[in-house]
TrEMBL record:
Residues 70-224 form the Multidrug resistance protein MdtA-like barrel-sandwich hybrid domain. This is Efflux transporter periplasmic adaptor subunit. The chain crosses the membrane at residues 16-34. Pfam families: Beta-barrel_RND_2, BSH_RND, HH_MFP_RND, RND-MFP_C. Residues 118-193 form the Multidrug resistance protein MdtA-like alpha-helical hairpin domain. Residues 110-189 form a coiled coil. It comes from Methylomonas denitrificans. The keyword Lipoprotein does not apply. It comes from the Bacteria. It is found in: Cell envelope.
Length: 402
């Protein structure tokens, strides 16, 4: 049966529409695959130039400030705290009166001891008279006994009386010494009711208040704290992976949250051998002293520490990702040996270089390369973007490297 012209025209339009949709699908697919990111292993080969720069190798840590010299002033006797004569921030001198505890109980004990001593001394005076009288009787009876003027029994009685009188006198003397010792202790406790500064310093903390009853029978209650603020100490916590790289007298600098661009300089005074374990992380305390005569540093401030392992200015530098396998170091060679790929007119050549200071990003070239040499570096798209953001990644002078 012959087809009508209208039916043939409809089929033609459907064929063209299907072809058009197919072309659109192919174009969309091509665009989609073109926009897909390349795999991480599809790296491009870049080159980098050896340039001059400053480099500083350091160990970083967090720290807290505390006074180098301080003392907790406490009470050695129990009683009510009557008066505190200084306030936080006051500068005091050694021997200055800081606080007063109610002295009445201790004054009463001293008075009782003194009265007891007077009583015993009076008894001793009377007993010493008895000793003198007993001695006279003994001497007289001894002469009479030789002439048989008295019996042996009377002589023995006088001898007993003399010895007994002397013993009683010695007992009274011992009692006086015992009470005198008690008196000395009570006088000492009475003196402890006045609390004096043991050193020059600044009152930095107050633990007790006026009117508070202090109990010194079990523990020594702290009233206030004195500190010398001219020299502060940073207690830095260094990870066990880094602490073996530190040493005494190593230069250190640090910043605080509010210091802006200011750096404080110091040196390592001591590395404490006993660690602290925080959340299964082993940390060692490293003490660093710093001058604080301008009083800008305060107790409890947080610090960012930089322990300087080495420093070099205007030396040849290359990125660490330009370093190849580590090589065996030749005799008398300095630094560490690595293999790098150098771009020359003859092509890429392997070369061994000596590396000195090294950070996480850059390394100092000691031998094997000159400024201007170009090295082959395998870096992906992300690395190239980082280099562009970092102005090709070379450090400037005075910038800490982590």
């Amino acid at each position: 049966m012959p087809q009508s012209p209208a039916s043939s025209s409809n089929r033609q339009r459907l064929r063209w529409l299907a072809l058009f949709l197919l072309l659109i699908a192919v174009a969309v697919g091509a665009w989609y695959f073109a926009k897909q990111p390349k795999r991480a292993d599809q790296d491009k080969t870049d080159s980098i130039e050896v340039t001059l720069g400053d480099l500083e190798e350091n160990v970083t840590a967090q720290g807290k400030l505390e006074p180098k010299e301080y003392v907790d002033v406490g009470a050695q006797v129990t009683g009510q705290l009557q008066k505190i004569y200084v306030k936080i921030g006051d500068n005091v001198q050694a021997g200055e009166l800081l606080a007063q505890i109610d002295p009445r109980i201790y004054a009463a004990r001293v008075a009782a001891d003194e009265a007891n001593i007077k009583n015993l001394q009076a008894q001793l005076t009377g007993q010493q008279a008895q000793v003198v009288f007993a001695q006279q009787q003994y001497d007289r009876n001894r002469e009479l006994l030789q002439s048989k003027g008295i019996s042996v029994q009377d002589f023995q009685n006088s001898e007993f009386t003399l010895k007994n009188a002397k013993a009683t006198a010695e007992s009274l003397q011992a009692q006086i010494e015992q009470v005198q010792s008690t008196l000395n202790g009570d006088k000492t406790n009475l003196g402890f009711t006045k609390i004096f500064a043991s050193m020059d310093g600044t009152m930095v903390d107050q633990k007790a208040r006026e009117g508070q009853t202090l109990n010194a029978n079990q523990t020594t209650p702290t009233i206030l704290q004195l500190a010398k603020l001219d020299t502060m100490t940073v207690r830095a916590q260094v990870a066990e992976a880094d602490v073996m790289r530190l040493r005494s007298d190593m230069p250190v600098y640090f910043t605080t949250l509010g210091s802006g661009e200011r750096r404080w300089q110091g040196t390592v005074r001591q590395i404490l051998p006993t660690p602290e374990v925080i959340n299964n992380v082993v940390l060692y305390n490293v003490l660093v002293d710093v001058d604080n005569r301008d009083r800008q540093l305060m107790t409890g401030m947080s610090t960012q520490m930089f322990f300087v392992l080495g420093k070099a200015e205007q030396v040849p530098l290359i990125p660490v990702n330009a370093l190849g396998p580590r090589q065996r170091k030749a005799d008398n060679a300095s630094g560490h040996a690595y293999q790098v790929k150098v771009l020359t007119e003859q092509g890429v050549q392997d070369k061994t270089v000596q590396i000195g200071l090294r950070t996480r990003r850059f390394a100092q070239v000691l031998e094997g390369l000159a400024v201007g040499d170009r090295l082959q570096v395998n870096s992906g798209t992300d690395d190239k973007a980082k280099n562009r953001r970092n102005n090709q990644g070379y450090p400037g002078a005075g910038v800490p490297r982590l």
